[in-house]
Amino acid sequence: MPPRRIIIDTDPGQDDAVAILLALASPELEVLGITAVAGNVPLALTARNARIVCELAGRADIPVFAGCDRPLERRLVTAEHVHGKTGLDGIALPEPAMELQPAHAVDFIVETLRREPAGTVTLVPIGPLTNIAAAFRTAPDIIPRVAEVVLMGGAYFEVGNITPAAEFNIYVDPEAADAVFRAGVPLVVMPLDVTHRALTSAAWLDALRGLGTRVGAAVASWCDFFERFDKAKYGGEGAPLHDPCTVAYLLRPQLFSGRHVNVVIETQGAFTTGMTVADWWRVSGRPANAHFIGSVDRVGYFSLLTERLARL
Ligand code: RIB
Ligand code: CA
Question: 22: Cβ–Cβ under 8 A, 6 or more apart, which residues?
């Protein structure tokens, strides 16, 4: 079975970094490129952080592209309060030696989808959807060529994390999210409904440190850093490891369960802008456009992460 070919669109972000490491550690996947977008921190930092993670994994061969530095229509909202000033606070890692690719991320996405056989490239957006929407807007011909979009974003029963109604990735660029959810591509959505069940634990962090590797130490330190925000906000132990849910779904879909429903994006609401309105009970009559994931086998998820991260 040939590896599944993916493009990761990302705003690292400690949880993005773990998603990238999981992908690079998994031979079932071929990462064609990593495209950085403004989100958790400004673009210059997300493009830097993506390269730091590739070098940490010993994969300076992975092409990394810088994309959009602000949302399609709104000012940028960032999340240093969660991820720290650099976006990768926790362990100190060397500045990247690998260069950014000269092409714009949106051009890379368009050219890759036009070049590769239709239906062979999966997009894995784990930040605001600005790059993806810009690619679809620039080149609508690529939309039917996308195999699948497996994204982290949104919330329904779990409600929002950046506002009472909206999850961060969707909230930062609701117009981009609206374009992606309306595009008609096969769409798998990992909302807070599932990622808030993918909580780290002290035992898991100890197991990572016990690997005795730089990757294990880095992931443990990143989780230590960003879980302080969630512990203070939600109480309880552990932090939601949001973004790796997308890559884990590509590797072990059976770890997840959800429902194929209609999901629309609120872009006008005074209090609800950025909300993913998921018609879970199918009352709207609107056609289903997303496989909206609601639960995960937490033990299986973290076992997969440990096993794969140990390979790096
Ligand atoms: O709301 C969680 C999402 O916002 C994750 O992708 C995290 O990295 C941040 O980008
Ligand atoms: Ca992210």
Answer: 244, 247, 248, 251, 304, 305, 308, 309
- How many separate domains does the chain show? 1
**Per-residue model confidence as pLDDT tens digits over 52-91:** 999 999 999 999 999 999 999 999 999 998 899 999 999 8
242 is catalytic: yes
State how beta strands 64-66 and 29-36 pair: parallel
Question: 39 is in which domain, residue-wise?
Answer: 4-309
Residue 240, class by beta-carbon neighbours within 10 Å (0-12 exposed, 13-18 middle, 19+ buried)? buried
Angstrom distances, CA of residue 107 to CA of 113, 134, 209: 10, 10, 39
Q: What is the pLDDT of residues 137-172, one digit of tens each?
A: 999 999 999 999 999 999 999 999 999 999 999 999
Q: What is the pTM assigned to this prediction?
A: 0.98
- Which of the residues 83, 104, 242, 291 is marked catalytic? 242
H or E element that contains 226: helix 214-234
Q: CA-to-CA distance for 293 and 5, rounded, in angstroms?
A: 22
For the CA of 40, the nearest atom of ligand 1: 10
Model pLDDT for residues 249-281, shown as the tens digit of each residue? 999 999 999 999 999 999 999 999 999 999 999
Give the CATH number for residue 253.
3.90.245.10
Q: Is the CB of 127 under 6 A from ligand 1?
A: yes
219 Cα: distance to centroid of ligand 2 (angstroms): 15
Does residue 173 have its Cβ closer than 6 Å to ligand 1?
Answer: no
State which of 242, 245, 246, 275 you would mutate to test the pocket of ligand 1, scoring each by most atoms of that ligand within 8 A of its C-beta.
242
